[in-house]
Specification:
Radius of gyration: 24 Å
Structural class: alpha/beta
Oligomer: single chain
Distance between the termini: 51 Å
Strand order of the largest sheet: 1-6-2-5-4-3
Number of strands: 8
Strand content: 5-15%
Order of helices and strands: EHEHEHEHEHHEHEHHEHHHHHHHH
Shape: globular
Length: 335
């Protein structure tokens, strides 16, 4: 099988077709883990015929020896090796040699989580494609994310109108594990209800907000470098009675996060290393791309100084115009 889309792989697995080798690329760890679970459910290897490890913790010689061993008292052996972007030259060469002629009774699943580094792995991708298949699990775009949520709702007998699905995605973000958790909550929330159509009110109720509130919008606007929307949201939050110091906290966290990611990215760090060093969840890897549009260090430092002054001023009661102060921070950052 050559390079497949995620949808085509699902169609193959639905037919119980399993290849000797899978290379799962991209930074969406949730969907990769789901595929690994599906393949394991199809093959049904017992504990003696199943192995899983991160590449940086495994002895590649032992892993490949295991892959080259026929299953014991079982029809198939499953070997999972994650984070292969961490492999050094010699172990990678040994892996490439095995992939060029894999054992038919073993299914080897490899995951590669660094999209930038993957571009240089042509030989590995070609060999895996010849022996099995290569599937990319990049971060879902907004439209794809909405479709994914609709499909997950449908699998539980639920439907959602556009506004409800969009609000769920906007509120939770592209974290599929978190979205899955919220969908499960919606399923339980509507369990005793005949009407299984999810509304915006249902979404907000399950997340823990009233329908008048729109959580995380300010943070998301800053992460998206949307100055105008962020300024409007500051106005709205203050008009709705939110404390200025609480709004400042909502602004500070995403600003610091994006500045940290941008600095690491410009320093040449790989995406996987940035995720770990910046303390990001795997599903937040999208912010690495978004950080390219984030203001530079000079503007960030100027905004940071204003945030420090604002924090002291709000707590001491010295600031008489919170709107001017908070919007001034955004205008300094995004000037």
């Amino acid at each position: 099988m050559p390079k497949l889309t995620a949808e085509k792989l699902q169609a193959e697995l639905a037919k119980q077709k399993v290849a000797p080798v899978y290379l799962l690329t991209g930074e969406d760890l949730f969907r990769k883990q789901e595929v690994i679970k599906q393949i394991r459910n199809i093959l049904q290897p017992d504990d003696f015929n199943f192995y899983s490890s991160s590449a940086d913790k495994a002895d590649i010689g032992e892993v490949l020896a295991l892959a080259n061993t026929s299953p014991v008292f079982c029809n198939a052996r499953l070997v999972v090796l994650t984070d292969i972007e961490k492999l050094r030259k010699d172990p990678k060469a040994a892996l490439l040699k095995y992939v060029s002629d894999p054992l038919s009774t073993t299914t080897l699943i490899l995951t590669h989580n660094d999209a930038k580094k993957m571009k240089t792995e042509k030989a590995l991708a070609e060999s895996c494609g010849a022996a099995g298949c290569v599937v990319d699990y990049g971060e879902l775009k907004q439209a794809e994310l909405n479709i994914w949520v609709k499909n997950r709702l449908s699998a539980r007998g639920l439907t959602g109108d556009f506004d409800a699905v969009d609000l769920l995605c906007q509120t939770v973000g592209s974290e599929l594990a978190a979205l899955e958790n919220e969908i499960e909550k919606l399923y339980l929330y509507t369990a005793q209800r005949e009407n299984k159509k999810i509304s915006k009110e249902d979404v907000l109720a399950c997340i823990g907000f009233s329908k008048e509130e729109n959580p995380f919008e300010l943070s998301n606007a800053i992460l998206a470098c949307n100055k105008n929307k962020a300024i409007k949201l500051v106005d709205k939050l203050l008009d709705d009675g939110e404390e200025p110091v609480a709004i400042l906290a909502k602004m500070t966290y995403p600003i610091e996060k994006m500045a940290r990611i941008k600095r690491m990215s410009e320093g040449g760090m790989a995406a996987g290393d940035i995720v770990r060093a910046a303390g990001l969840f795997p599903w937040e890897s999208r912010l690495i791309t978004a950080a390219r549009n984030f203001p530079g260090q000079k503007q960030f430092l100027a905004a940071m100084n204003k945030m420090i002054d604002a924090d002291a001023g709000f707590k001491s009661g010295a600031i008489s115009d919170p709107k001017l102060t908070l919007k001034g921070i955004l205008l300094t950052l995004f000037r």
